[in-house]
Amino acid sequence: MISGILLDLSGVLYVGDQPLEGTIDSLIRLKKTGIPIRYVTNTTRKPAAAIIRQLVNMGFSVNQEELFTAPMAAHSYLQSHRLSPYMLIHKNLREEFTDLACKPHNAVLIGDAEDDFTYRNMNSAFRLLIDGAPLIAMGKNRYFRESDGLSIDAGAFVEALEYSTGAKAIITGKPDQEFFMAAVDSMKTRPEETLMIGDDVDADVDGALNAGLQGILVQTGKYQQGDEERLINDTAITLTDFNTATEWIISHIADSNR
Ligand SMILES: [Mg+2]
Fold first, then answer.
1. I need a labelling partner for 95 at 20 to 30 A (CA). Which of 7, 76, 116, 212 fits?
2. Domain of 178?
3. 8 Cα–ligand 1 center, Å
4. Ligand 1 center–CA 218 separation, angstroms
5. Per the domain annotation, does 228 fall within a domain?
6. CB burial class (10 A; 0-12, 13-18, 19+) of residue 31?
7. How far is the CA of 14 from the centre of ligand 1 (A)?
């Protein structure tokens, strides 16, 4: 039974600024089933409002309440723990954290800082961590797909700081169980009746299964041949793309109503 759907964004619905073929129509078909959908993303290069704008400009209809981002989860973690972090994050994301940026810093927040991953900035983070400040990472993804190829994500930089300091990052985005559960709870569904669709074996699919959800790995976006063999949980399903996943869901619903 499926009574809720979690959708990863980049690599599933679009790559760069281009919708993947057929995904706009498939999302419309999926919505017609009446099953609630939430969008869950570890993207840390832009704030939530910009993600919504980008989706709408591409032709997807998505509301702000349906979007769950790793930066939003990081913000609530930092706020509830009264942390004011040194921010090793993308310049476009700073606006989401301006209220927490006061000094002195007592934590490090890290995301995909892109060109701001300099020695100087890594070292500023290192010095806080070696003195015992907590490391809050919005994700630990290896790479993602951009329109011109695969690009390195924040994971390697998180590991570099962990390696140098002995700190263990607190991950606020996927595959954190609480992150999945916040989205599941908002749909008032049960985890075992919720299906996650993503292109990332670790953060999306294994993460969802570890949180007690169902999972579909799609072979678009960052998917590399043989990725399905890395899945730890063998109940995950691998399908070619979001369009096929939509067909699978629609026929699954028809079967369970029979
Ligand atoms: Mg993705």
1. 7
2. 4-42+174-257
3. 5
4. 10
5. yes
6. middle
7. 9
